[in-house]
Amino acid sequence: MAELKTKPGAGSVTGFLAGIADDATRKDCEALVKLMKSVTRAEPVMWGSGIVGFGSYHYVYESGREGDWFLAGFAPRKGNLTLYIMSGFPEHAALMKQLGKHKTGGSCLYVKRLADIDMKVLRALVTASVRSVKRRYGAG
């Protein structure tokens, strides 16, 4: 079975954020650090070279595939911010309708700028996602 390539590393989150050339993107990422740190009560950690993750949990699928992943995270990508939050919790659909301008794919939420979305709704989404993951996988 293939091993997951994205893992927590020793990279500096502060250094990573400081290296973001676009001021608005860097400020959005700093705001996401505050939000996700507050919700998860975990320090930010670099996962791979471009994802900032908070907390972690161990999953095992029925197929036998298993691994570790972060409770919530984000990555500044060309053209948008990618937020990694789980779906599938009861309030997900209603919150997504209230969020504002965004796109989705899998467990990824794509936004151009945080100014395009309702930050209270984003906090509620991240909170519900983290709560759901903790219930499902027993994450601490």
Write a structural description.
The protein has 140 residues and is α+β, with helices and mostly antiparallel strands. The chain has one domain (13-135): Aspartate Aminotransferase, domain 1. 36% of the residues lie in helices and 24% in strands. It has four helices and eight strands. The chain has helices at 13-18, 23-40, 92-99, 119-137; strands at 44-47, 51-54, 57-60, 66-69, 72-77, 80-84, 103-105, 108-111. The strands form two sheets. The chain has a six-stranded antiparallel beta sheet. A hairpin with a 3-residue loop joins strand 1 and strand 2 (51-54). Helix 2 packs across helix 4 and helix 3 (92-99) packs antiparallel against helix 4. The longest helix is centred in the C-terminal third of the chain and has 19 residues, at 119-137. The protein starts with 12 loop residues before the first helix and ends with a helix.
